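G., the chain you wanted modeled:
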Amino acid sequence: MGITQSLDGVHIVEFSQFRNDHDQDPRERRESVDTRIQPINLAPLKGAIDADPVRLKVLKVLAEDGQWVTTADLLRAARHVRSIVGAVTIGTILNGMNDLVSSRLIISRTSLTSGIDWAEWRINPDWLIPTRKLLQMMSRPKFQPANHEDFSGKVDRLLGDTT
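Predicted structure as tokens:
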């Protein structure tokens, strides 16, 4: 940056070297624009959906394609797991999941005249992939520890093998 002097003794600052700053590679620019989303802890959600198959089913329906899902769709899916589920229960489950992760994991939209029965819900697009990964991790088979008979039988075969 060059400073030049004018006739009245006022200094003029030359900014020409900064003019094309926005054309540079963003990693080389001086200002930093942080567009990362805030981290979310899905661990409390794992325990809640592990304990309640209705919550698990509702979350699976929401994560399926990531699009808006009506309360009626969620009710239909939840009633495959538990026959007595209402719209208030669905709203409570969804708001409870948001409270668990202290975030807007599940977002909603509705018109003022339609009421909660016709609300639409979806997983926040920023958290769709981590939520799907959580569900995928939970669908893996659980570890089954070997029982004593299995272990002793293998030991006998290994020790008895003379090859």
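Residues 87-101 form the longest helix (15 residues).

Shout if anything looks off.
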